[in-house]
Amino acid sequence: MWAANTPHIKHQDTIFVETVGGDLTVKVENNTESGLGIYSEPVEDKNQSLTDCRNLLRQAGLLILLRVRPYREQTSRYLVYNQRTQHSRAH
Q1: pLDDT tens track for 11-40
Q2: Which residue of 8, 30, 33, 89 has the fewest CB atoms within a 10 Å radius of its CB?
Q3: DSSP 3-state assignment of 50?
């Protein structure tokens, strides 16, 4: 679900995904102004926003599957978030 007027995507107030400051970041708190996420990786275009991205979120039990293709990038990134452990990793 897209969170209107915010620089992130949220899924059921469980995880928040943003591209602020040149990184794709997954957080478990809605603190887009500060704080570190549980997963982060650089994006090619540091000035992008999530409105420029193509993304998809799906839930499978306790797992949340994310597909994000940052602006001007040719390949999608695949991330899995485990609600039980509150960890995220790339695949």
Answers
A1: 777 888 888 778 888 888 766 555 568 899
A2: 33
A3: helix
> For the whole model, what pTM was predicted?
0.77
* DSSP 8-state code for residue 51: G
CA 64/CA 48 separation, integer angstroms? 24
Task: Give the C-alpha separation, 70 to 79, whole Å.
Answer: 13
Q: Is the CB of residue 17 less than 8 Å from the CB of residue 7?
A: no
Residue owning tokens 């992130």: 8
Residue 24: name the closest of 61, 54, 3, 63 by CA: 54
What's the residue count for the chain? 91
Task: Name every residue whose Cβ is closer than 8 Å to that of residue 18 and which is 6 or more positions away in sequence.
Answer: 7, 8, 9, 24, 25, 27, 32, 37, 50
Pairwise CA distance, residues 30 & 73, whole Å: 26
